[in-house]
Amino acid sequence: MTKHPPNRRGISFEVGAQLEARDRLKNWYPAHIEDIDYEEGKVLIHFKRWNHRYDEWFCWDSPYLRPLEKIQLRKEGLHEEDGSSRRFLALSPSLKCSGAVLA
């Protein structure tokens, strides 16, 4: 009997799909799906820039799989909804936060 992959937000279960996977040392790494075993309900994960000997089979409902998170840094600032932009202030590394919330 062929199983169907779960509907997980941010992960498409198809060969080549990008995601993050957790290795045996509990570190998250970018990875992609190399193969899918529909009979067993598993996916073969390849960790990017790692040798293929480290590829690992995961159940497709495993908590060790998550959507790929892309962090984008903007040099010029954030764009608000009204079209204006704010500049980030560069703070001196010697400044410390007192923990107080200032409004």
From TrEMBL:
Q: Coding gene?
A: PHF20
The protein's organism comes out as Pan paniscus (Pygmy chimpanzee)
Choose any GO biological process term that the UniProt entry carries and state it. Answer: regulation of transcription by RNA polymerase II
Which Pfam families does the annotation name?
MBT
Where does it localize?
Answer: Nucleus
Q: What is this protein called?
A: PHD finger protein 20
Coiled coil, from the record = none
- Signal peptide (from-to): none
Per the record, the major location class is nucleus
